[in-house]
Amino acid sequence: MRIGLAYDLRSDFTAPASGPEDALEEYDSPATIDAIEQALAGRGHEVTRLGGGRRFLVSVLEAPPELVFTIAEGRGSRSREAHVPAACELLGIPHTHSDPLTMAAALDKAVAKKLVAAAGVPTPRFALAHSARDVARVDLTYPLFAKPAAEGSSMGIRKTSRIADATELSARVGRLLEDYREPVLIEEYCNGPEFTVAVLGTGRAARVVAAMEIVPRGVPVADFVYSLEQKRSPSWREELEYVAPPCRDAAFVRAVETVALDAHRALGCRDIARIDVRVGRDGVPQFIEANPLPGIAPGWSDLALLWERLGRGYEDLVNSIVDEARARLGIP
Fold first, then answer.
1. Which of 85, 96, 203, 300 could join 325 in a cystine, given CB atoms 3.0 to 4.6 angstroms apart?
2. Does 270 fall in a domain?
3. What does residue 19 show for φ and ψ, rounded to 5 degrees?
4. Is this structure's pTM higher than 0.90?
């Protein structure tokens, strides 16, 4: 097939002078684009680099591909991950991953939690702070967890995101509001094991590939925050253990996977998604958030690490996404 790659590079943007240090965390490196292109070309596909934003629009209008493979994060709004899918829909060009509605709903964590909860999927109780005044009205049980409501790639998540009391909550929410200039999601902290689950497929055809447990080596599980500091640490491979499939009771793992699969379907995810699940204080696996546009940086992104631990190569990961899109679209 003729496949066009839609993506945003970190070098395409300039970090705001007064913004947070992780303002460009979601965007990709040239090495990731090289790896995706090589994986697709290895299966005989003809690959064209389309880029993102206005460059994507110009490129896709000049030479429309048969399929757009998108990892483009977009820029400037809570619906930014929907930009490329929406353009593809407008132009009638098939694309991988979820449609614009799912992309926008999943990035807004409060919207995603409302949708999965309405479908009967367990998720921690939460509140949304639009301003510092909203903190006083929070009626949740400590400890709590606070993060930007519409960011990915652990943006805004630090070791201080786990909050013990009202004083810490006020300080943390104030800092997040100032740095990210968007609402802050506050939810009851889950103190059990943390998992991320890969789901392939669409609708009733969706199925779990595997769950991966993220195990801290230096702190108790109850205190563990999978933070940006942890992910950026030069010694992250020594500080964290990634176990796929988890070495736990089969019924327990099935419960984790069921939460992820039900959330995937409730949000209308297509082709692939990575669903984060953490066990709550009552021992029940809880939906944390959905990633219908998961990072696939080889050797680093959670999805790539999961595939690696299953003994499946990076080429298989990339082309599994294409295969799911072709099956959904009826493309031979």
1. 96
2. yes
3. -85, 180
4. yes
